[in-house]
Specification:
This protein is mostly helical. The chain is built from nine helices and no strands. It is 69% helix and 0% strand.
């Protein structure tokens, strides 16, 4: 199994066991939202490529990332088909939207913050794959464990690009987003999603 201790050290909290329990009770929904997350991740990478056309390092990293995310989307869809899981429209989690609220509007600060958010999302995704994998059936466990290496690399790519774009230490900005992310992850949610907090108890 890929060592993700550096990601666990990076994040300010681990996924609550209550979320894992919720996921195991909502496997179909987990897969549907996972597919949406992969599609959104590819879209985010493509949007960055269109907006920052003069940043060659970003273009190369995001091009590779977008291809990998779309491949992951295809793999999730294949698993869903195999399991007879439909792909209905569902509302996105509030996670990413809440995480983007502190993003600054002027450049290069906007790019730096967007890239930090990307790093945080990829890190959390990687942590969640590792957290839930031991509880899954063999096929799904194997698939989720296979994603750890690429998700860990995506997190590192985003963080390195953010540091390069800033040209100065970004620890304070990383802290802003990680502190917010911790609050989101630990706060109970009304609906289960891949990046939601634990479900509110009735």
């Amino acid at each position: 199994m890929t060592d993700i201790s550096h990601i666990q050290d990076f994040l300010y909290c681990e996924t609550p066991q209550a979320w894992v329990d919720d996921a195991l009770n909502n496997i179909d929904l987990l897969l549907i939202d996972h597919a949406n997350c992969e599609k959104k991740a590819a879209s985010t990478a493509m949007n960055l490529m269109y907006r920052y056309v003069d940043n060659h390092d970003l273009l190369n990293k995001m091009s590779r990332l977008a291809r990998e995310e779309l491949r992951h989307f295809e793999q999730v869809m294949a698993l869903m088909k195999k399991r007879g899981v439909d792909y209905p429209h569902i509302e996105a989690a509030h996670y990413a939207g809440q995480l983007r609220k502190p993003i600054r509007t002027s450049e290069p600060h906007r790019l730096v913050d967007i890239l930090i958010v990307g790093a945080v999302i990829e890190a959390r995704s990687c942590e969640r794959f590792a957290k839930i994998a031991p509880f899954l059936d063999d096929d799904l466990q194997k698939f989720y464990l296979s994603l750890l290496k690429s998700e860990a690399r995506h997190y590192q790519d985003y963080l390195k690009l953010a540091q390069k774009a800033a040209g100065i230490d970004i620890s304070d900005r990383v802290d802003v987003f990680l502190s917010l992310e911790k609050t989101i992850i630990e706060t109970e949610s009304d609906e289960f999603r891949f990046h939601s907090g634990p479900l509110k108890k009735c």
